[in-house]
User: Fold this.
Amino acid sequence: MTSDALPEHDPRFDSVDAVRDRLRSVDYLSDEGIAGIVYLADRLGKPILVEGPAGTGKTQLAKSVAEITGARLIRLQCYEGLDESKALYEWNYKKQLLRIQASRNEADSASWDDIEDDIFSDEFLLTRPLLEAIRAEDPVVLLIDEVDRVEVETEALLLEILSDYQVSIPELGTITARQIPLVFLTSNNTRELSEALKRRCLYLHVDYPDMEREKEIVLTKVPGVSETLADEIARIVRSIRQLELKKSPSVSETIDWARTLVLLGVDHVDTETAVATTNILLKYQSDIAKATKELTAEPAGVKRPGAPGAPAR
Amino acid sequence: MSDTVIDPVADDDGGDPVAGDALVDLLNGFIVELREAGLPVSLTEHLDAMEAVRFIPLDDRSAFKYALAATLVKNHAHWRAFETVFEVYFSLRGAEYAIDPDAELAELPEDVESGDARDGAGQAPANAGSGEALTPEELAQMLYQALLQGDDAMMRAMARQAVRRYAGMEPGRPVGGTYYLYRTMRNLDLDGMLEQMMQQSREDAPEPLTPLEERLEHDEYENRINQFKQEVEAEIRRRLVADRGVEAMAKTLRKPLPEDIDFMHASREEMISLRKALQPLTRRLAVRLARKRRHGRKGPLDFRNTVRHSLSYGGVPAEPKFRYPRPAKPEIFVIADISGSVAAFARFTLHLVHAIASQFSRVRSFVFIDGIDEVTRFFEGTEDIVEAVHRVNTEADVVWVDGHSDYGHAFEVFWQKWGTEVGPKTTVIILGDARNNYHASQSWVIKEIRHRARHVYWLNPEPRAYWDTGDSIVGEYGVHCDGTFECRNLRQLEGFVDHLV
Assistant:
């Protein structure tokens, strides 16, 4: 495999459990899948493509991993129209122009070749996130956020970095990584990513957590929340997620809701409180109406179409 | 347990080249089966999977599963298919495979059972066949307790017992297990148990439960019951695999991926997964179409603009300016047959078209069986498309004589009532299998429509091979259309909508 050609690196983690425990120490509660794949990515030297609904902690995962490995987080936020000069590198034209101007004033000693060599050197190179991650001496975690926002053509920019951890600059040659950074790509799945990109990555789907984990997340992230309140919150959120909504409540919204309830001094969620505060969990009026209706309805009529079991992951 | 035990790679440089032959073979078979099931597994990914399992302690089944999933499955919609194949390949397979924790697991429930059963029913000897000692009432009672307390180990044990007792499995029968599942479930009366548990928690509560609390309890128990069902399914599958072998079983269980499910023959369960797949699809489609619109090729040179900008370069047209094309948004008329067999297909298409309605200047929908009715009003002013589609099915006035498809009559009425509203910007999409029950085709209507409209497309949910057989007259209509498309699954539907814009 390609890993033969890559620089050797010491594994960052000893075992899957070590990943999980260390993530927990920075308040990121992972599950079996998340920890396992981070561990594998480190061992195999492969990037991780993280997909899943918005607000389930995809970006946070990269940040937390950076934190536990003591690495610098380099982030490339993708958007439509992102190009090479924003993602990889750019020549500092102004400085190059200055350099040429300056050489005119000097004696004619400097030949054209010298100048050319000079202006296409490291000094005039502006590094952008991807190149910076490759050239870094210190440990880094590279986060390529919302990669589904760039066009299919721009995706190709990433391929060289992701598979070989190198960047080719025509004027300078190929710059190879000194160490293999951990790379995270996140995607909200607004479009199908190209096969080439997917092939190079490990794939991790982060779904809404199950009730137990969500409860734990609330307990760790919200100071002052009681065990019973967290339990109630997690259970209500699970109920709401089973409805067919435009946008299900995300984990971050659950946390916001829990914080609100704590601030309001609520220690037990009854129907009125739940209904009065659903606007924190849900962002569409039609969703709020639906949830309100369902939460207050007499359960005799509780018949949801094929209530799905726990999500696959 | 045997020579095929593979040491988890503990040393740091990861240099254990001896991946056991048995494991390599097993993985090969596994990946072949994944491909058979329709997952696009490339050679690189295959190699990655091999590499990945070297770093995973093989006695950790779930870690093993995630390692394979991460390297082989790159689309969440394929997860279910992967899981099914995984369960078949890496579950109880006798003791010769060390990767199989179920070998121990299979013994475990017996101990749990005799250890945990508090009501004296578990006095049976802690070996295979202990279930015989339980009466059905005791079994039901223990299951009830397990569900009530959410005791996982106990639930697993009960699933095992229930399958042994009720499924009536016969060796060698080439079935997928649905029948066994049904037989087991029929004997357990889980709905009754749910009711009973609700009753129990009502009694236990110090004060009457509020609707919210009741709902939460209900969800909790429902969740546990679902979990129990999955245990039962897993147990049946384990037994079937042990009986019939891996390949045969995997083949029986092979199911189409969500995007390949045939609309016309989808089961209820498949319908649910289709519905789930539809939502991200519409979102993706909307984003893609909007993007396409904005980032189309540049139009012709904009002379005025170029000259104006040339002033800043002293009259030299250094910066040519182009017109941006503004493609007209088409107006869409969807005319859908919603009679029996093609109803599901029509529903999905209506759903999809309305979900991306912002890409069109106007969407109007008509549904027919032998009468025809406009249903645009159901979609207007509501954000809930599911609800709207439901209202279409229940409230639209589409029956004229007998409620059997009559394309000819429906088209005729359409032409009389709405024909004049079809204009040069309109794209007409007709959905149906054109099975006309030998009525008159009235295909002249389509011809007339085509004269007025920009395009006329026909989507047929039947396989192309069946077209123009029996009472299908799609060919007769097809000659007047700009295109007839076979549209049997989401993949084809997506392709068509892409083509449309």
In short: The CA atoms of residues 88 and 357 of chain B lie 43 Å apart. Residues 276-295+328-500 of chain B form a domain with the Rossmann fold fold (CATH 3.40.50.410). Chain B has three domains: 1-100, 105-255, 276-295+328-500.
